[in-house]
Structures are given as C-alpha cells and as structure tokens.
Amino acid sequence: MKQCTHLDALPHPEPAPLSETCLECQAAGTNPVQLRLCEVCGHVGCCDSSPLRHATEHFKETGHPVMRTLETGESWRWCFVDHVLV
Predict the structure, then answer these.
(1) Which residue range is the domain that position 63 belongs to?
(2) Model pTM?
(3) Count of domains observed in the chain
C-alpha cells in the first residue's frame, strides 16, 4: 500500500483557511462544487469536479503536496505527489 511521504513536513497546527470560499472561482464568476484546503499555506480552492479546478492549479503553481477536504462530515486528505488518500 502506497503511503504519503509528505505528512511529516506539514506545519503543526495546520494553517487556518485564508478564505471562506474559492476566491479564484469568485473572481471568475463561477461556483465551486466542493472546497479543499492546502495543508501547507491555507489556500482554499475548488475541487476537480468544479469547472476551473483551483485546488489542483494551486498545487501545480506552488508544489504544496497535501490538501484536505473542507466539506462537513468529511475528513480525508489527498497527496498530489504520491497520488494517495491520507
């Protein structure tokens, strides 16, 4: 079973969300489907089911490897580098 090699390098405590929604979606006039939190810097972006996929774009621009869901009742994380749920 593949594991994430980036969890130990994440800040503790995790960063607070920098916004309540995906600001990139807001600026583009689109609606996010679900929100994701960057576990490195607190950036809030929309999921890959959203039209513009800002959480993935944030990873591509910054290299920040791990994000987590901001959806109520969910607690999973995703590592973009290792392609694994953590």
Answers:
(1) 7-85
(2) 0.94
(3) 1
What distance in Å separates the CA atoms of residue 61 and residue 46, rounded to the nearest whole number?
15
Q: Average pLDDT, whole number, for the chain? A: 95
Q: Do the domain assignments include residue 36? A: yes
Give me the count of residues in the chain.
86
Residue 29 lies in a domain: yes
77: Cα within 13 Å, side-chain hemisphere:
19
The answer to whether residue 64 sits within a structural domain is yes
- Helix/strand/coil (H/E/C) assignment for every residue in 33-60: CCEEEECCCCCEEECCCCCCCHHHHHHH
28: three-class secondary structure by DSSP? helix
Alpha carbon distance 69, 7 (integer Å): 15
